[in-house]
Specification:
By secondary structure, the chain is α/β, with parallel strands linked by helices. The chain has 15 helices and 21 strands. About 35% of the residues lie in helices and about 20% in strands.
């Protein structure tokens, strides 16, 4: 198994492609890249790990690499990816970076996200740009390429003697994260009293025995939920089921879907190991799909902006950003509020780059990732939980009446997304296939920023379907994704795409 290098950093199997030496060298490469970028100013890197068993090795190796490169390390211990981002923002503000002086602050999350138990990785965060006090996010592709290039031979040069950094511990990350979320609810006008949002609501949470457990518990308690049933909240780091929050994994006997039904709960939430993604189960125990997480989050933020009378300085519509492979439910929700949707290439860093440029009120990806800039510029399961509860709450979006999640979901358009993979003999073979797709759909709206994306603007599926064909960044395959009102229609689009590609 080879090491996977991408805009998100590096990821591999511990003891095979990801060894202590590899982790230390990647972190050292990032540290030396940051020091060069800092131009002589001191560099602080905030780190946290997703809590999976075996992560301590990666944590210590990464800290050693960063210290060896001359960086000061602030170690949050087990922490969610969004928590590391919030802490990075905080240290950046304290050290004067936002005013153009002081030191440079960055972050690093030690996580393999939803990958199985034996995987781990290192994800880089930069604190640049942004508003509402938040800035930290994954680096844009052009900067990520520079970090990866630095990781290649020769090995990064360690800083000698007094130039080496040190390590300090900070156990206040989750408290600061939840506090910022509560402040965002107030400052945005969503809730004068966030502690009232959970009144009358019973919630079940599955934290997969990883980093989201402490934050989910604290968040839901401070939102005033009547009852919280917490599944898989131990600090063992051993995943009780495959960690990706999919329907298959959450519908296993005794899992989240069963627990919601058994407890008569109003909603079930499932986090992935680093707690940047959120999947949702409604009050009937039905898994509603990760695509709905972003649609519901955008709905809450646009409705809140409407009620507060918020708008874009200087006029113009509010803007939301998401990637090309995310459900058009987001477009439908935005249209209700006269908001604009900006589509980007796949990847959180690409979405955030657009969000900062367009000053978006919300953004994210259809994998359960909601990005609320008032809290952080990374996907955040706690923000997603709070926004869904706001929609359900009589003290929030319900306007005095508690609303069932199933009713909210039923108010959204119904679509089906179908996905396929096509093997390639060589990655270069993707280009002519993409050109054939673009030519075959020249009469539709075609976007070429990430492979080819076709938005059907004419014919029986006009305004109701899209096709996305792109080469994988990590495998010799083509990814084909289509969305339409029915699964049969989406499969039909994929069948035709396969025929065109030859």
């Amino acid at each position: 198994m080879s090491l996977m290098l991408s805009v998100s950093g590096c990821r591999g199997v511990v003891g095979e492609s990801l060894t202590p030496e590899v982790a230390m060298r990647f972190a050292g490469s990032y540290g030396s890249w940051l020091r060069e970028r800092a131009g002589g100013r001191p560099v602080t890197v905030v780190i946290g790990r997703d809590g999976r068993a075996g992560g301590a090795m990666v944590e210590h190796a990464a800290a050693a690499g960063l210290v060896g490169a001359g960086c000061r390390v602030v170690n949050l211990g087990v922490a969610m990816t969004p928590t590391v981002a919030v802490a990075t923002d905080s240290y950046a503000h304290d050290e004067g970076m936002t005013a153009g002086g002081g030191g440079v602050v960055a972050g690093m999350v030690l996580t393999a996200s939803h990958n199985p138990q034996q995987w781990n990785g290192l994800k880089c965060l930069l604190a640049e740009g942004g508003e509402h006090g938040s800035a930290a996010c994954a680096p844009p592709a052009v900067l990520a390429a520079g970090i990866i290039a630095r990781f290649g031979p020769p090995a990064p040069t360690a800083v000698g003697g007094a130039g080496r950094g040190g390590v300090v511990a900070d156990d206040g990350g989750v408290d600061e994260h939840v506090e910022r979320l509560l402040e965002a609810l107030e400052d945005s006008g969503l809730a004068a009293m966030p502690s009232a949002l959970g009144a009358g609501l019973r919630v079940v949470v599955d934290s997969v025995n990883a980093s989201g457990a402490a934050g989910a518990r604290l968040c839901l308690e401070l939102l005033g939920c009547d009852e919280i049933l917490h599944l898989n909240a131990a600090d063992t780091g051993l995943f009780p089921h495959p960690p990706e929050p999919t329907a298959e994994n959450l519908s296993l006997p005794g899992g989240l879907c069963d627990a919601v039904r058994g407890a008569g709960a109003d909603v079930g939430f499932a986090q992935d190991p680093d707690a940047d993604r959120l999947a949702i189960v409604d009050e009937t125990g039905r898994y509603i799909g990760e695509e709905y997480t972003l649609a519901l989050g955008v709905w809450a933020l646009l409705e809140g902006a409407k009620r507060a009378g918020d708008g874009v300085p200087g006029g113009g519509p509010l803007t939301v950003a998401t990637n090309l492979s995310t459900s058009r439910m987001v477009d439908d929700v935005a249209a209700r509020y006269g908001a604009r949707v900006v589509r980007t290439a796949v990847g959180e860093a690409n979405v955030v780059e657009a969000m900062k440029r367009e000053r978006c009120v919300a953004g994210g990806e259809g994998n359960g990732g909601v990005i609320w800039p008032r809290v952080t510029y990374v996907r955040d399961s706690l923000s997603a939980m709070a926004l869904v509860l706001w929609l359900m709450s009589g003290a929030g979006g319900g306007g005095g009446t508690k609303r069932r999640l199933s009713e909210l979901v039923a108010a959204l358009p119904v679509y089906a997304i179908e996905k396929r993979k096509v093997d390639l003999a060589r990655r270069e073979d993707a280009a002519p296939a993409i050109e054939r797709i673009a030519a075959a759909h020249a009469g539709q709206r075609v976007d070429r920023q990430d492979g080819v994306w076709v938005d059907f603007t004419s014919g029986p599926l006009a305004g109701k379907a899209w096709l996305h064909v792109r080469a994988s960044n990590t495998e010799p395959i083509m990814r084909l994704i289509a969305e339409a009102p029915t699964a049969a229609a989406a499969r039909g689009i994929l069948d035709e795409a396969a025929r065109v590609m030859g």
